[in-house]
Amino acid sequence: MTQDHPSALDLDDDQAQPEAAHSRTPPATGKPPRRFDGLRRHRRWLRALVVVALLGQMALAMVTSAVEQTPTIDEPVYVGTAVVYVQQHSLRYNPEHPPLGKLIIATGPALAHPHLDPAFVGNQGAVGRHLLYESGNDPWRVMLWARLPVIVLTLLFGLVVFAFARDLTSSVGGLAALALYAFSPDIIAHGSLATLDVPMAGFLLTSVWLLWRARLRPRLYLPLAGVALGAAVSTKMSALPAVPVLLLLVVLSVWYSRRTRGAGTRGRLRLLGLGMAAAVVVALVVVAVVWASYVAVDPRLRWAAPEGVPAAHGLRGFAADWLPFPQPYRDGMRVQFAFEDTKWSGFLLGRHYRGSLWYYLPTALLIKTPLGMLALWLAGAVTVVTVPRLRPAAPYVLVPPAVLLVAALSGSRDFGVRYAIFLPMFLAVAAACLVVFRRRWAHALTAALVLFVAVSSLLTYPYYMPYSNEAFGGPSKTHLRLHDSNVDWGQDLGRLADRIRQRYPGEKVWLVYKGSGVPAFYGIDASDPRTVPPDRVHGLLVVSDSSIAKADARLTALIEGSRPIEEIGHSITIFRR
């Protein structure tokens, strides 16, 4: 069985350089001059320094956000559940999300040793609040420790982006992809939180990259790809739609690795059988990882389904009944199906509505993605599809995010672009493919667009969550068009407390806050203006921008009778009334 010669996609960086570069090298029969060895070493060091610089600025941005931001809406649930996992080995909280992401989060608080009363009885929202504000712990310290593991993981996924793009193109392409990743406001915003969106997307990207490498070394990379895919599925159930796609990529990778010239029908059928067998093995690895994540929490897998877990019917019911996952996972699927059947409210382009809009995510991505990044995504995707030597990568780079995006578009929760956080990862790799064009203008244009992205991202520091691009007015205007985790997820309560203490000491504060923090803990002595007659509301009226977006008639009347005087973090508005 003979192996085809690798294409330019499969060559290392030095091999993939233009022929003109090879024409400057000495004949193969002689030893290369030392100056060439020195040049290569200098290039390697320069590439390493650029990688460190890109990830360093990203780390600074994420750590700053982690230090300055108070808990967002979902974080106390995940952090409280993570501490219960470690201290009590119980699966009773947050069954709608598998354990692995929360076990990763738990590695931080495990070092901080927070106190949690094992006799506490309450729901998953209450356990997070009890841990942070009612158990004698410092919530700033606990949250920082909980966020640090996700920050480290986000940085490691940056190396995957670099390596994937380098495998497809060259080190220059890898650096371009890493720059887009490292300056993505959405990845910085959510990679600095103790949440599950970035870990799931990163594990999925890692699995696809390993499947791409399995085209040349399947025995090494296919099991690793299964582990990474299992990690994604064990972190968030929204990874499940990608599983059939990645199993088909397993077959494709095996087909490429074993194909021979002139193989007949029998040989092709045998090759197809090998690919299907490999897909079964990878699927078994995925199942094993899911089971291992639950056993890591409780080796005895003690589980009592919470009250009110709804029944699932049709294809959903079949999946929840027959997937070879632990019972807590399958009950969590039923909870997620119930969420999808709920009619939530949303806010888009200044309009509050009930239900979901299929164009919500595309519109939100158009608003919240840097303009240069949008251009590079589109050009990169076209390049992958149209350039013959890159076309084999299209099923790997473009199909998985496309399937996940279609699944997200059909969802019922219009809560933010975090539901499509996989796009900045995969499409950064696609955008890097522009460097295969050897025209100077193409490289100059790519560099200019990457620089545009970097400047836009740096200018929003440290307010990454409410970022919107220049065409939509920047971060200060995001709340006029979007809400929830796009702009205001409760992250600026601490900044509000500092501002009131510095500029408005002693003034009466009326607060409508959307978040999981406890205002009194941060020194905010405030009342709810919706509980008294409007003529009694005088002084400072402070309202979360997400609450403004979904304000009822009473709150709207209070706001209209007030004068805005200040914005906190582009997510909370202070009015004087």
Please tell me about this protein's structure.
Helix content is 57%, strand content 5%. It is mostly helical. It is globular, with a radius of gyration of 26 Å. It has a five-stranded mixed sheet. Strands 1-2 form a two-stranded antiparallel sheet.
Total beta strands: 7
Summarize the helix and strand pattern as letters. HHHHHHHHHHHHHHEEHHHHHHHEEEHHEE
Bulk shape: globular
Number of helices: 23
Rg, alpha carbons: 26 Å
Mean pLDDT: 91
The neighbouring-strand order within the major sheet is: 4-3-5-7-6
- Distance between the terminal alpha carbons, to the nearest Å? 81 Å
Strand percent estimate: 5-15%
Task: State the secondary-structure class.
Answer: mainly alpha
Low-confidence stretches: 1-29
Helix content: 55-70%
Largest beta sheet, briefly? 5 strands, mixed
